[in-house]
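Consortium newsletter contribution from the modelling node. Members have asked for a concrete example of what our holo predictions look like. Here is one, prepared for the fe (ii) ion complex that several groups have been discussing at recent meetings.
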Amino acid sequence: MIKIAPSILSADFARLGEEIRDIDSAGADYVHIDAMDGHFVPNLTIGPMIVEAIRPITKLPLDVHLMLSNPDQYIADFAKAGADIISVHVEACTHLHRTIQLIKEHGVRTGVVLNPATPVQHVLPILQEVDLVLQMSVNPGFGGQQFIPSVLNNIKELKAYKEKNQYTYEIEVDGGVNPETAKACVEAGATVLVAGSAVFGKSDRSEAIESLRSR
Ligand SMILES: O=C(CO)[C@@H](O)[C@H](O)COP(=O)(O)O
Ligand SMILES: [Fe+2]
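And here is the predicted structure:
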């Protein structure tokens, strides 16, 4: 069963609580939270205080995608705020293994993220250690961008490596996912689909989530 992780970056922030309750009752599997620092990516968004505020609203796992130049500095804060999964960009981590261990020490599930132009080879040594691999299908920083089809090759490689080594990591795709691009992602091996505009841009969130899941 494919999991759907609506990205609250495209939610109405003035009604964030209601928006999260809405996707929860509409059948979302995770709440995807994009934390951006204005340095690693050219945008500023959500910090641990917002994660803490969201935590009591839903029992869904909070899937926190860190787009920060120095993720180590904030992992404890996001963990204490209630994150269930914390994913860090391989491009931002000088000592990736150490960063992944730090997330584990806080009892949080771990994820590693690849930008569209990052070769899968860059994460192979860490795949044994992570619960999730997040393949970006747009350049990170903004919602509502167009899907980059070349990432499908990365997804296929991640799936093949997982099967060959009998690993259990989830393969999550993030950026420009809609019912059309979702089909290709799932065929390539994606198990979790992040969708911002394709869920929050629609008035009927149940229908939006279902059309992604059934693509
Ligand atoms: O991490 C990011 C963007 O950097 C994403 O999670 C976006 O929020 C996805 O938005 P859509 O492309 O689905 O509108
Ligand atoms: Fe994201």
